[in-house]
């Protein structure tokens, strides 16, 4: 089979060496929902060597509007199991680890350890604070993403390189509130934000470009305005 990554490797920023770095990398995705689905799909397609999927939820009908790895036939089934199956259909050589458990203080170190970076597919302060503190302590890059309605944002936090961490940038009294299950969201908002998170992961792993370390990227799909805020 002709090299499936030839178009990507044709980019001087990636080439053979960058593709090899991707192939040797392992990423943790916490939450395989609206953000986690496009993150996982595009990292698998890009040639990452291994994905560790963490999600204790099951597929519901309301997920199908934005969680693009799932089908109607999978309603009621564990998200991490279904996602892994579809990702392996895409890439037979992809190493996928499945954890059908919720991120907690008791398992955070175990889940993050051994990964080259962590991607945020969660929708709560508690999970993001725990991921941020765990990644900072273990010195693993943390790629944050969030969506609300037509709006989304992405940033990268890396101990020693980021002027402020997630907990400082979003203290509970100032940050976005936890998103309830019924909160309105345009499916494409999650797709855009998840793809930007995946792009940040590829940049970090392959070693090119200017990752969003110390910067917050925002988008409003209603106006198509984007901003980058330095912090």
UniProtKB/TrEMBL annotation:
Q: Which family does it belong to?
A: Belongs to the HesA/MoeB/ThiF family.
List each copy of the THIF-type NAD/FAD binding fold domain by range: 5-228
Which SUPFAM superfamilies does UniProt cross-reference here?
A: Activating enzymes of the ubiquitin-like proteins
A GO molecular function assigned to this protein is: sulfotransferase activity
Keyword Glycoprotein present in the record's keywords: the answer is: no
- The organism's superkingdom is given as Bacteria
> Which species is listed as the source?
Candidatus Bacteroides pullicola
Q: What residues form the membrane-spanning segments?
A: 27-51
What lineage does the source organism belong to?
Bacteria, Pseudomonadati, Bacteroidota, Bacteroidia, Bacteroidales
**Full protein name:** HesA/MoeB/ThiF family protein
Gene3D superfamilies attached to this UniProt entry: NAD(P)-binding Rossmann-like Domain
Keywords in UniProt for this one?
A: Membrane, Transmembrane, Transmembrane helix
GO cellular component assignments = cytosol
Q: Which InterPro entries match?
A: ThiF/MoeB/HesA (IPR045886), ThiF_NAD_FAD-bd (IPR000594), Ubiquitin-activating_enz (IPR035985)
An example of a Pfam family matching this protein is ThiF
